[in-house]
Amino acid sequence: MKLLAPNVLRLLISAAALLLASTSLATSSFSTVVIDPGHGGFDRGGIPGQLVPEKNVALDTALRLQRLLQQAGLHTVLTRSTDVFIPLPQRAAIANAQPQSIFVSIHYNAARRQGAHGIETYFEDSRGAALAARIQRQIISRVSTDNRGIRHATYYVLRKCQKPAVLVECGFLTNPGEAQLALTARYRQMVAEQIAAGILEQRHFAFPAPIDRTPRKKHHKSYRLARKSD
Question: How far is CA 59 from the centre of its chain?
Fold first, then answer.
């Protein structure tokens, strides 16, 4: 058997060590998922005149996501588990208090135009962008709707969260068809399963380093502003 030269052997050992270190970093990049069901209490979510309260379907989807992630061995923390209002600073603080965590905020969209439809996922920095891309791709692979892609936003909970953070808009409650779907347990379970799939996929990859962005207009008062153009 032909033996490898010592210098070649050292290079191979070094490469293997780097690979193992990288794999270890990826799999241990987070062990806790902070799940944030949007709105709650007096804050119904959505826009005036909207028939389906966003707070209810967001909470149910979040609880389903929690069960799936726990079954996969991840530790989970909910910013709310009942119909109560949690201020935005407190939601971000809950996430920041958790070591080795990521933050996933669950929402359903709204627009003044009833025809607006589809799913989109928001991020604030490069770490959130990586997670958002995986979650968005997993949802669209199974849910038949318009792929609105991933979008950058400076929503308070994303901007103030020191962890990799995303905000998932799981469909338009102002669209009659998507509102009816959102009211079914089957749809909410399917969305939760695909969000979970994106989160679990991310565990196999290290997050990129945060990249500073040029300051943009900040959304202070709520998670999002109603977009008249939709």
Answer: 14
Decide if 224 is inside a domain: no
Three-class secondary structure of residue 81 per DSSP: coil
For residue 33, give every residue at least 6 positions away whose Cβ sits within 8 Å of its Cβ, in sequence order, or none.
69, 74, 75, 76, 77, 101, 102, 104, 199
pLDDT digits (tens, 9 = 90+) for 64-95: 999 999 999 999 999 999 999 999 999 999 99
Residue 18 pLDDT > 70, yes or no? no
* Residue-by-residue DSSP string for 85-135: ---HHHHHHHHHTSTTEEEEEEEEE--SSTT---EEEEESSHHHHHHHHHH
Q: Which residues constitute the domain of residue 177?
A: 25-202
Alpha helices in the chain (DSSP H): 6-27, 54-71, 88-96, 126-140, 156-160, 176-182, 185-202
Buried b or exposed e, range 27-36, using 16+ CB within 10 angstroms: eebbebbbbb
Look up the pTM and report it: 0.83
> What one-character DSSP code corresponds to residue 177?
H
The reply to whether 4 falls in a domain is no
Cα distances (Å, whole numbers) of residue 111 to 6, 53, 217: 66, 14, 20
User: How many separate domains does the chain show?
Assistant: 1
Classify the C-alpha dihedral 17-22-25-26 as positive or negative. Answer: negative
The verdict on residue 12 lying in a domain is no
Indicate whether 5 belongs to any domain.
no
DSSP at 148: E
Higher-pLDDT residue of 107, 1: 107
CATH code, domain carrying 141:
3.40.630.40
